[in-house]
Predict the 3D structure of the following.
Amino acid sequence: SADDGTFLSGSFIDTPNIFYFPEERLGGILNFRWIPEKPDNGKIFTSLRYEINQDLTVGLDYRPLTDNFSFAANWRVISEQGDWKPAIILGTANDDFNDIDSQSYYATASKFLGELAGFQFSPYAGATYIDELSDLRPVAGLNVRKGVWSVMYQYSGTTDHLSISRQLGRHTASLVLWGMEKPGIAWTYRF
């Protein structure tokens, strides 16, 4: 299973039960990211969101070094279905694009392509409108997952990013390479 602690073909780390607290999820998502080499607007990022249902998430993003709060929402308009129909997702968030901190509005299509040798492949593509740049940019990425491990490549509309993540129950710990040159860490807790 995805939470059994297997790493490739052998056991690596078993997930302690405390990482599954609370027993029943309440719908909250807490996220933290630290990238020490970024400017203050992107160095520390936190987010608290609530899943209203399986398709709609709303919340606030906060950048404590610049005392900036912003609204965030994610709506899966169409769920992935069958062999060809991708999921369609609309959303808004405040993000940092190079050195610019801006609200953005995005639309993406994502599709699980299948499994090969135990690896699951899910690409996405779409566009984001970056408010501060008054510009519409392409976005794309690929998530590759095996058990509790995943690697994600992302193009955000201005730069490339790479992350390697390990799921621990309802927690996800990630190593991030922002702009393919600035290392950092991220942690997500779904409660």
